[in-house]
Amino acid sequence: MKKSEFTSSRKREHLEICCENDIETGFAGFDDIRLVHNALPECKLESIDMSVRFLGHNLSSPVFIAAMTGGHPDTLQVNKNLALAAEHFNIGMGVGSQRAALENPQLSDSFTAVREAAPKAFLCGNLGAIQLVEKGPEWADKAVEMIDAQALCIHLNPLQEAIQPEGDHDSNGCLKAIDELSRTSKYPVIVKETGCGISRETAQKLWSAGVSAIDTGGLGGTSWAAVETLRAEDKNLINLGRNFSDWGIPTAVSLIEIAGFEKPVIATGGIRSGTDIAKAVALGANLCGMALPLLKPAMENSDSLNKAIDNIHRELAVSMYLTGSKNITSLSKSRTYITGITRQMAGF
Amino acid sequence: MKKSEFTSSRKREHLEICCENDIETGFAGFDDIRLVHNALPECKLESIDMSVRFLGHNLSSPVFIAAMTGGHPDTLQVNKNLALAAEHFNIGMGVGSQRAALENPQLSDSFTAVREAAPKAFLCGNLGAIQLVEKGPEWADKAVEMIDAQALCIHLNPLQEAIQPEGDHDSNGCLKAIDELSRTSKYPVIVKETGCGISRETAQKLWSAGVSAIDTGGLGGTSWAAVETLRAEDKNLINLGRNFSDWGIPTAVSLIEIAGFEKPVIATGGIRSGTDIAKAVALGANLCGMALPLLKPAMENSDSLNKAIDNIHRELAVSMYLTGSKNITSLSKSRTYITGITRQMAGF
Amino acid sequence: MKKSEFTSSRKREHLEICCENDIETGFAGFDDIRLVHNALPECKLESIDMSVRFLGHNLSSPVFIAAMTGGHPDTLQVNKNLALAAEHFNIGMGVGSQRAALENPQLSDSFTAVREAAPKAFLCGNLGAIQLVEKGPEWADKAVEMIDAQALCIHLNPLQEAIQPEGDHDSNGCLKAIDELSRTSKYPVIVKETGCGISRETAQKLWSAGVSAIDTGGLGGTSWAAVETLRAEDKNLINLGRNFSDWGIPTAVSLIEIAGFEKPVIATGGIRSGTDIAKAVALGANLCGMALPLLKPAMENSDSLNKAIDNIHRELAVSMYLTGSKNITSLSKSRTYITGITRQMAGF
Amino acid sequence: MKKSEFTSSRKREHLEICCENDIETGFAGFDDIRLVHNALPECKLESIDMSVRFLGHNLSSPVFIAAMTGGHPDTLQVNKNLALAAEHFNIGMGVGSQRAALENPQLSDSFTAVREAAPKAFLCGNLGAIQLVEKGPEWADKAVEMIDAQALCIHLNPLQEAIQPEGDHDSNGCLKAIDELSRTSKYPVIVKETGCGISRETAQKLWSAGVSAIDTGGLGGTSWAAVETLRAEDKNLINLGRNFSDWGIPTAVSLIEIAGFEKPVIATGGIRSGTDIAKAVALGANLCGMALPLLKPAMENSDSLNKAIDNIHRELAVSMYLTGSKNITSLSKSRTYITGITRQMAGF
Ligand SMILES: Cc1cc2nc3c(=O)[nH]c(=O)nc-3n(C[C@H](O)[C@H](O)[C@H](O)COP(=O)(O)O)c2cc1C
Ligand SMILES: Cc1cc2nc3c(=O)[nH]c(=O)nc-3n(C[C@H](O)[C@H](O)[C@H](O)COP(=O)(O)O)c2cc1C
Ligand SMILES: Cc1cc2nc3c(=O)[nH]c(=O)nc-3n(C[C@H](O)[C@H](O)[C@H](O)COP(=O)(O)O)c2cc1C
Ligand SMILES: Cc1cc2nc3c(=O)[nH]c(=O)nc-3n(C[C@H](O)[C@H](O)[C@H](O)COP(=O)(O)O)c2cc1C
């Protein structure tokens, strides 16, 4: 089996594991956050403006379809459904890691199909920081070109790599490679975690490196430690995976730590409703990524996915209405109640 | 079906749902509040003076029969029983929304019966803020005249409206309409929520608008999201209702936020005993509204209702006695212990 | 039935209810308190000096047999067993309310038997504050004379009285009567609650009134509301009792509020082990009263009771040893960890 | 039965009780501690340097095999397995109390076997502080000589002694004896608790006495009160043991109290994974002792034990990698989240 084949078959395996198992661990912290009801919204629910401007693009809502898949023919339909929704709703979408398709261009169909289905949507390419180190900015450029992306997500997943037998255990040079790419690329670079969160300290390094946006990718939603544990056969690795399944910074805590620097922030990880999105925006998020809750309907059909997004939008609109937020800027300034462990972790 | 018929049949449906289902959600916060025992009350239990002065009226206790019903012939007996109790105990009472009867005067019997049964009681009319915007101060005046009310409650219920298919989703102009009414009406205007609470910010706007009193109508008692969810048939609306069933500011938190401005405040929402009333008074409430706990006995008969109120009064008197509060003013100055989530939400 | 007969038969009923039912409610707070382990005690367990000086008397330990019974022939044996233990261990003991025996001197045998069995023990008489108001200092003197007491406990029990149909609901004049008695009596006056605790404010009044010591009698042990609820037949009273069964200030909180004024303090209410006693002493208690845990063995026989007290002493000694406290003064200065609701109620 | 025989048979009994029963009580506090994920580790997992310098010795990791056994022929194999692991991994190891072998030199085989199996390892002798007082520094020297130890652990176990019928209840002179030994011995003296923790106050006395290192030996792991309770037959002693089974300072709290004084600290008690070790290091520990989790595999065979330690090392390495700590010094400076009761006990 060639490396690209291996990477791509793992991709398919991941999708199946995510849909059939309980792979959410830890807590994202949104249950500890409450929005402040405004009994006098002084606006019209139907006129609520959920649109956001993100990296120079106008999007109809902060809902962001988080990076999930691509790189295997079986994932084409899912990616197409996700892309159709991104186009239909004019929301942002990130594709899954393009590594397999970069290694083996024959596997790029499931990626190019995304742009075909979403000719005008805000699309983000996806590459691991470690691949960036290995292959240099050329691969980054190729990833962007492959889907004519508006931005590139560089994902950081040291936990997943660390507990995988075939994982890459060397993260040297990642920051430098991100720094160089950010300063030279023509497209904005977004750095994202994939389930363990970004700390204040890491965010400061990334802002200094010149990245355009950071995605929390925090604890509390899809857990790659849990996914890898289900895939693993070696008993030691299973134990290792279990021990680290709730490792990380809860999304809400990560968000509190990295927001407030006048820099675009995406909150991802365990966001499960329009109300969670509203809470995240109130805590400082510009976009809110969702992966797992969209994966299941996307694997059914386009209609199911659109209904799911409609419901999320409805909840977000109602949450905005009930906090008296006519638009996202107003929501982002609204007061929240922070309680419990999240309060303690945030240092209040 | 004409609009007024529709409104009125919905009223009846509400009463039934409330009596037969568990429609209380969230937490009101009173479990997090403890009164400070006074081992030396230095007074006589039977001489405890529970009377309050509210908007220029002398009431025998802070118990307030919160707005519930009217507008459908089937609700006449309930309203009559409630009114008889208000008269018997000399306590305040609010009628349910008078919208149906204003739309269709033939439906006003269940309201006029209230004043007949309670010729001297402190009665409050009831109108939605949205109706006030639509129909202007004339309807407000008519509502007051219909029951010869001492005051008018303008209710705010954006959540209930937002999750109802037939709901009014436009709350523009509510504050302005309230402002105008407050400044021109001959009767005092009370603004109340109906289960989601009033925040400090909203209260400040309302005080500036010149309202005479605010009713918290906080989270933790009857949940309209829960009621509407039970009425709903559309699956999406049921989900929406569920997601918002614990939306809002707990009554105790809302009370802490809006009290202390030398303005009359009513605490309503999840108040379930005379001790809860004592806690609310200690936190700054002038009156304490109860709906659901009085609805069930009121639907049985006048006797059941009077016994229920007797018990509440007894508990309040004992609570006052045990905090050494000879009267409500003294109780309102007594110290409390605030713990748990309520302590965190209140920012202590 | 004469009043004294009634009082006395109620006494017997109480003992039975306490022994056969779960009548402990609320939380005393000692679970939220942890002593600081001292790995270098630098003393000998067997030389630990648990003796205390209290109101001029030398007692062998802070264990105080809290007021329980007397006034009915059936209680004579229990009282005798308690007295034998007080004498045997040289610890303090309070008798139950002497009201019945003061009303009807024929009922005084169960009290005089206490002094006979404990000729040298530190004994406290017991009278309700309300009886003191009604009958004046003469009764107080008579109560002391009846058992040749070293001190008199005046008990405050407004909750118990308030929820009893036959209860005395007037507590006017209690403070004044206590003040007069404290200033004129030849014996020290101790004021105690019986399950609801003494607040800082009440303590200040009592210190100003010149009382010699205060007993917290806090929440978390025997609940008189629970006892009266079990005795009650009237449904309304049962409900009232239940609603107030966890009313009051937890013993640990009361202790924190009233200690630290250089005045003798007894901690009573929910103290269930020698470790609880050590915690109470560390929080500022001079003596620690126990009622219920001693009642059961005392109703068996003298031996059971002595074993129970031996065990409590052993636990106390080990707790002192493990905090490196050679004597009670040293224990009273030791650091504690205060967590949970008790921490919040104490305002830390 | 001679004293040494008695001591030695008790040793064997302990091992069996520990392996077959649930003898862990209380909470160590590590669940309340969370490490801060670093999404940009900038290092290589396989290059993580877990080595530490401790009392002048270079050890390959902070894992320390805590004092467990020796002194009975049946324990020889276990001790040999532990020693082989210490040698294999170049980690520190403490032997169990050498008292029995000092009393009866025929019992020293199970100790000398340790040095034979681990000719180069960092080994610590072990003697109770009370034996040190009784027998003087000669015994300490003999204990060290017996295994040619690099350091001597003086253990403090006042709780275990206090609840044992045959226990030594006199801890007078311990501090003085430790002081003298520390100032005169040629080897470093480490003072350790055995399950109840060292407080800030005790640590200060020990640092002043000149000890080289302190081992928390905190609450939350093996509980000697629990072990002794299982061994006890006397009902009173069983009760006493139960009442004290969660006595003590949680390891994490003890660690926070005693770390930060530029003095070597060992964290022991309830450390159950490599992640717990990483947390302890981040809180200030130099070494982390584990007893129970190593006892079970050590009783199986050398291979099981090595696998267990491999797994712990792997978890520690991954934890270091994921906090971006290339070495232990870096880990020791990393930020932590402290929540819950541990946060309250630590006074934050
Ligand atoms: C099936 C699946 C595949 C994913 N693949 C990628 C990926 O290739 N690249 C990436 O950056 N994140 C990937 N993610 C992580 C998501 O983008 C997201 O950060 C994470 O799932 C947390 O969001 P959630 O809790 O809403 O699922 C994947 C997530 C899922 C569920
Ligand atoms: C059956 C029912 C009908 C109600 N109708 C009205 C109404 O018409 N207008 C209004 O302002 N509030 C209405 N309310 C809200 C109550 O006045 C009150 O704010 C709310 O029920 C919270 O109090 P509770 O927890 O004691 O029930 C109604 C409540 C109930 C239970
Ligand atoms: C059976 C019984 C009878 C009591 N009678 C009296 C009494 O007559 N006078 C009094 O001051 N307290 C009385 N008490 C209250 C106790 O003195 C004590 O304050 C209370 O029980 C709390 O302690 P505990 O939790 O250890 O039981 C009585 C308690 C019990 C259990
Ligand atoms: C079976 C066993 C025997 C022990 N014997 C000793 C001993 O002789 N001397 C000593 O200082 N500590 C002794 N300990 C205590 C340990 O060194 C350690 O402090 C304690 O068990 C807490 O660590 P753990 O929770 O990882 O077991 C013993 C522990 C166990 C489990």
From TrEMBL, chains A, B, C, D:
Gene Ontology cellular component terms for the protein in this record: cytoplasm
Catalytic activity, as annotated: isopentenyl diphosphate = dimethylallyl diphosphate
Gene3D superfamilies, sorted: Aldolase class I
Cofactor(s) required, per the database record: NADPH; FMN; Mg(2+)
Record-linked PANTHER family: ISOPENTENYL-DIPHOSPHATE DELTA-ISOMERASE
Highest taxon listed in the record's lineage: Archaea
Class in the EC hierarchy, top level: isomerase
Protein's recorded name: Isopentenyl-diphosphate delta-isomerase
Entry binding sites for substrate: 10-11, 97-99, 160
NCBIfam families, sorted: IPP_isom_2 (TIGR02151)
Organism lineage: Archaea, Methanobacteriati, Methanobacteriota, Stenosarchaea group, Methanomicrobia
GO biological process, one term: isoprenoid biosynthetic process
SUPFAM superfamilies from the UniProt entry: FMN-linked oxidoreductases
Binding site for FMN: 67-69, 97, 126, 192, 222, 270-272, 291-292
Species name: Methanomicrobium antiquum
Domain FMN-dependent dehydrogenase: 28-98, 171-334
